[in-house]
Amino acid sequence: MGQKSQVAGSGLPSSLATPPPPFPGSGRRFAPTVGKGTPQSGGDITGHLTFPLVSVAFLVSFGSSMLYGYNLAVVNSPAVHIKAFYNATWSHRYGHGLTSGSLTLLYSLTVSIFALGGLVGSLLVGVLTERYGRNVVLSRSTVLVLLASSFMGFSRELGSPEMVIVGRSIMGLHSGICLSVVPLYLGEIAPKNLRGFLGLVPSIFICLGVFFAQVLSLPELLGNDRFWPLFLSVGVVPASLQLLLLHCFPESPRYLLIEKNDIFGATAALHRFLGTPNVQDVIEEMKEEQQSLSSMEMVSVWQLLWDRSVHWQTLSVVVVNAGMQLSGIDAIWFYTNTIFENAGIPASQIPYTILGTGATEVIAGLIGCFTIEKLGRRPLIITGFCSMGICLAGLTISLLLQSALPWMCYVSVTCVVGIIAGFCMGPAGIPFLMTAELFVQSHRPAAYIVGGSLNWLCNFTIGFIFPFLQMSAGAFCNLIFCGICFLVALYVYLIVPETKNKTFMEISHIFATRRSFLSNPSRLIGMMKFSGYGALESMEGSGSGSSLP
């Protein structure tokens, strides 16, 4: 390790040679454990917001992430018009209309096929990002939006409900790719002290997408029988803007250096994103990770699932991504009209009530984005899931009592707003950020495939079965989501460490220490909160104080 790095074409000066690592796979020295037991980095690789960083974060969030939020909510308001179109077309083709159950099934397929497309897209993330890079995948995937918008926009003119369903599935394919690639790209270009902030920018735009869909769904705008095909196709505008401008920004420097050995391209990208000629510390940190992975290839999903060295990280990604969708938020977004109708809100007031929930989403998302680097990831995601669980329990009670107490309808609306606010403040974006932070470069694409696949599979399940679940269980169906929210919050509280202001290698070291600690059978392990972020603390002896960092 006292020699120069042997990366092809690196041309690094000898000053970048790294000292012997304090733990396997790392070349960065750590100062002695201080304060709360968090290892302190031996170098400063923090940064500040620059115009290129902010611009690319806003561009990919506007052109990709916002479309995910938009397409979650776009089918809610025009449901009656889409169903009427399906029924009329069926009657014209076969001489009779659809039964109520068949119409519900066909519309549920229209809603949930978006998630099936997303599932397929999430499975392609690993091979696409490894072969083409993050920037190129985001740019070229916008072609899918143009195709999907064409299908949905001309569906009524051509009398084809199938075009709506196919268009929704293609739009889901695009969202499945971008929902993983956007946080992956932003997480790799951001300095460690800004990863949380930039990582939550996409979640704000997801909330904005939902809000824009709610605004455009007003009867005075596109939420009427005449314009609903155009309403489904509006996503072509932000996608076109991304297609035109994204090529102006460089590729992820981590991808260029670690996966392509292009140190000159990585250095130029860092100069552009960080706005400073002094990027030696960042290059050194990336080379340490590259050296630790020099004997490893990019792992597959199967290898990731069977790799015991990352099983805690993998389990954490599974829990938070599945919990994100099984929390019931998709049921709220997909079927807000139905929920408010059941709560007794007059039909004429529902669009404007929904508009208020959309504004709440944006405000909550902004609060999460601007506080994550101060509070950390864990407090936001735990508070978010607990808030959702409390509000889901309140929604159940209010729906059960509204026949006896008419004013309970306002409690129902308040609970729905609380569910959405709790979700957008933390659980909406932190699982994607966490997937990037818990793994090193070789495991990250496979981790996004696992997390994204579960995310979309659960999305499809909720979107498809919720109408039938609501018909069979009534208000009690919300208690299922309530229990899931509290269980996920408990898991995060006990298991997931805080990753704020830590490099990827430091986070890997935390989990490596945990695995080493658990491998010692002579210790009695207590699951408890420790050092402000939760860990497994030794109970050996009489208060030894030995603990995991």
UniProtKB/TrEMBL annotation:
**Which one GO biological process term can you cite for this protein?**
dehydroascorbic acid transport
Provide the protein's localization.
Answer: Cell membrane, Sarcolemma; Cell membrane
Recorded GO molecular functions are: D-glucose transmembrane transporter activity; fructose transmembrane transporter activity
- Give the reaction(s) catalysed: D-fructose(out) = D-fructose(in)
Its principal location?
A: membrane
State the annotated membrane topology for this chain: Multi-pass membrane protein
Q: Kindly indicate whether the keyword Iron belongs to this entry.
A: no
Outline the extent of the Major facilitator superfamily (MFS) profile domain: 57-500
Tell me the segments the record calls region Disordered.
1-39
Entry keyword annotation includes Cell membrane? yes
What is any one of the record's Gene Ontology cellular component terms?
sarcolemma
Q: Which InterPro entries match?
A: GLUT, MFS_dom, MFS_sugar_transport-like, MFS_trans_sf, Sugar/inositol_transpt, Sugar_transporter_CS
Fetch the Pfam families from UniProt.
Sugar_tr (PF00083)
Listed A to Z, the keywords are: Cell membrane, Membrane, Sugar transport, Transmembrane, Transmembrane helix, Transport
The membrane-spanning stretches of this chain are 49-70, 105-125, 137-154, 166-185, 197-216, 228-249, 380-401, 407-434, 446-466, 472-496
PANTHER family (alphabetical): MAJOR FACILITATOR SUPERFAMILY (MFS) PROFILE DOMAIN-CONTAINING PROTEIN, SOLUTE CARRIER FAMILY 2
By sequence similarity, the record places it as follows:
Belongs to the major facilitator superfamily. Sugar transporter (TC 2.A.1.1) family. Glucose transporter subfamily.
Q: What is this protein called?
A: Solute carrier family 2, facilitated glucose transporter member 5
Taxonomic lineage is: Eukaryota, Metazoa, Chordata, Craniata, Vertebrata
